[in-house]
Amino acid sequence: MRGVIYILLPFLLISCRGKNEVLFNRLEPHASGISFENILTYTEQVNPYTYKNFYNGGGVGIGDINNDGLPDIFFCGNQASNKLYLNKGHLKFEDITLTAGLASLEVWSAGVSMVDLNADGLLDIYVCKSGPPGGLKRHNELFINNGDLTFREESAKYGLNNEGLSSHAAFFDYDRDGDLDCYLLNNSIKSVGGYDLIKDQRNIPDSLGGNKLLRNDDGFFNDITAQSGIYSSDIGFGLGVTIGDINQDNWPDIYVSNDFFERDYLYINNQNGSFSEVIENYIKEMSMGSMGADFADINNDAQSEIFVTEMLPERHDRLMSKAIFETWDKHQLMIERGYGNQFGRNVLQLNNGDNTFSEISRYAGVEATDWSWGALIFDMDNDGLKDIFVANGIYKDLLDLDYVNFMSQPGQIKNIIETTKNAIKTMIDLIPSEPLLNYAFQNQGDNAFKNRASDWGMNEATFTSGSAYGDLDNDGDLDLVINNVNMPSWIYENQSEKVSTPNNHLTIKLLGIDKNVQAIGSKVKIYVGSNILYQELNPFRGFESTIDSKLVFGLGQASVDSIQVIWPNGYQTSIKEVASNELLIIDQNNGQKELIIEVEDTIGYYTKKSDILNFKHIERPYVDFDKDRLIYQMSSTEGPCLCKGDVNHDGLEDVYLGGASGQSGALFNQKIGGFSKVQLPFEGAIESEEVACAFFDANRDGHLDLYVASGSSEFESFASGLSDHLYFGDGTGGFKDSHQALPVNGKESTSTIVPFDFDQDGDMDLFVGGRQRPNYYGVPIDSYLLQNDGAGTFIDVSKQVAPDFIKLGMITDALAVDLDGSNGLELVIVGQWMSPKIFKYSGSVFVEISRDFGLDAYAGLYNCVATGDVNADGAADLIFGNQGTNTRFHASKKEPLGLLVNDFDQNSALDLVHSMYFDGVAYPLVQLKELSMQLPKIKKNYLKFNDYKSATLDQVFGEKINKGGYHLKVTELHSFVWLNDPKGNYKVLNLPFQTQLFPVYDILLHDFNADGHLDMLAAGNFLKSKPEMGSNMAGFSSWLEGDGTGQFSFVPNSVTGIKIAGEVRSIEQFNIDGHVALVFGVNNEPPQVFFKNHESK
Known about the structure:
The protein is mostly beta strands. The chain is 8% helix and 35% strand. The longest helix has 10 residues, at 410-419.
């Protein structure tokens, strides 16, 4: 085939060299010849105080400088000289720095880009300079390859001699004119403390620094930042730049990860020489102190995910002693001032394929990797799934909380300055230092990862900054090179070919055209069965580093069906009949054809229509954390409710939408062509937060009446806002408040209403779930059984008929259904910090029978429950909407999540302490500062963070754990299906992972596609969580098609047409103007209405 060269790799010619299950082997310096050490020594003049990036370290570059087929290695040094090592084969390297003309002693280098800039077929080296100002060779340097293992410096000739705090440079053909342009990442020269979150600072260019977009005009790089839409301000503390086609339009886009308070930037290529910064349109949750980033496809759908690293520790002791979280007020101020929804954790943005991303780091298990400089996503074990490497560690723990506390005491600092000769050096000496293990996350195949670093041979603690991968020995797997601070840098030899049952692979080298001879920006798709293995050739990755430009694809035990290369100019090359375990060279000059993009004119199942219901839910400003200091999630934002019924007997469905506190709800009477809005008499409940509603005939007059439950934590006991309301309908669409005192005492908020005739007397009685008592979060409160006298007056008979409803829990939802086939209704009740409860009426009293159905072991943080026969066996099944597993919380039967509710300091106010297991031991989740504000006496035992960091729950609270109060537990966080079985063989099936990414607040069951099987629509999300926990906004609604066995499969939002980014609290299916419609009640937003398309299922 023209343009394609196959090369058999050497290792296939010999037999396996023994079996070894350790994936990586660290090469010793005497064996590899690499002895580079980036030694940093602080002085009174140069140190982390005078230069904020002192311990950022340096990058690694991998590339073949002499075209002998063996990748060479370049290390950046800060106070040490840069080093270039020539690959001699067999993982032996020779230091040729001096002869190559690349020595740089006392020149602070940061990042390296290995790229052929002059298109002569030889890799050049561009080095970004940072460090303190002044000194020799302070500008960035471009070393042009002479072809004889020497280089000449020509940065000024090319316009690349920038002088500032450059971190890294990414070269790419952003305008698709055939040559490589440059995005230059510059860290701000100003100190972080000089800012106070002023709005729109990023719009003010920094004349002394700032990021730059440099266009290649015939070999000279001109600064076009101002006209290109690129921010170049002095708040851009950029630490990482990543290039890739994020929206699959075949034009390169840019991601910039910014440290400190400035949010990250996502630039989408406008295809006209400019970019649009759109991160808040694409991404709802970002990292706070972003470090490095990478683009890659983790689930083989040919869409790139985005992984960004931060500094959240995984280990409990470091979490308690090294992590600093923003306060709620500071977090809100940042959002108001335009700095985005940022959190102190890594983020893994799952590409939904429709220009939206779901942040799944907590689900994936990759949210906490400590002080993480950069990430690399590549297939370490050649199983066909890309894994994640995270470079970790900082030589001095600058965020050590005891040290931060010490430095905040002016008296002690003054004493050191006045009494110590080298005061600054002395203060830095006091900062703790602990090397940390790097992370090697193995892709488990379900969008989740497991850290295998120690198992795979990376069991040495380090201070790693830069890292890069490449197949250094041409054996078909990717080796890893890391640049450490104050210790030797290492090569990890990948031994995939030595493990039992080695996997197949394919290595691809691309040859480009014009002035982009490396074909940078190309996209390669390898079709393997139903999977697409996808990589983009953008070698400037990791932290300040460059990977080798050969693409290595792990295939597992599969073989290649075909290959598609999409070149940077938009043309393509297709190849079939490709053998595995080879090096495949593909030349763009031969066989490229115009790429035909087939745009499918797809119509989603539903189409969104606006202005159908003239209503917007508006939350009153209220902060639960001001009252309950130790809770992690607000409970004042659980509306709006939504319910339907034909209130005027015209055959059309009408709808009631609940209001927030300070806003009355509204009834919308449907008419031909639209709705008319009715707010009387509902304005009388304007103080209530309406969280549940139900239409039913309460007084047996043949007309629908309306019960509305009042929730929220923002009221005091007996406040009018806690009163539920029963409205009697007159059959014409008019309603009148019954003015009944419901549900009798007014001390607590309520959450759910279930109309059902428990006593079989022909009228509808009520179960009303109690949600929360003000100022008593965690205390189980009463729910109510209200008996109807037949005329719509309700009497509380809980104590007589349902004594177990007393202190039942913090209820969120309930329903009545026949579970046992007795033709009687069981009451199914769910709530937070409790297991599902099932009650059966015995004729005189309600008896709990939860254990009979096997649900007593599933304690969760439930928000809703739904019922239907999902496996078509004639028995009603249950679906439970839970917190989901995309959370910092972890829970299991063996290691439950805990909540202590007690007055530990005997001050007549409840104290709340969450606990969670780390390495088999339960610890308090709260940090010492917050705990001591709630319990000041705790300081007697734990004066310092270092004292508290390893204190277990038992050690902190001792016998008080089991003395008085409540010790609530959660063992299950998944949303799941419970399959009923008349024979008692009950089965629990977790819903698909897409539905575990967010808290599910409502579930609608219906046979949407008319195949005879029940389908499911689930929605939720939650925004108002403390920054240390982070919001849960990864859902856009989850459409699940049932197969009739109880199993469900996810249908993408781009297919259904239903995409809701907000916090859904309620869902109803309506018939509007003769059309099927879905209506979603969304917190703090207008309701969203979607109409079914005739062409859809």
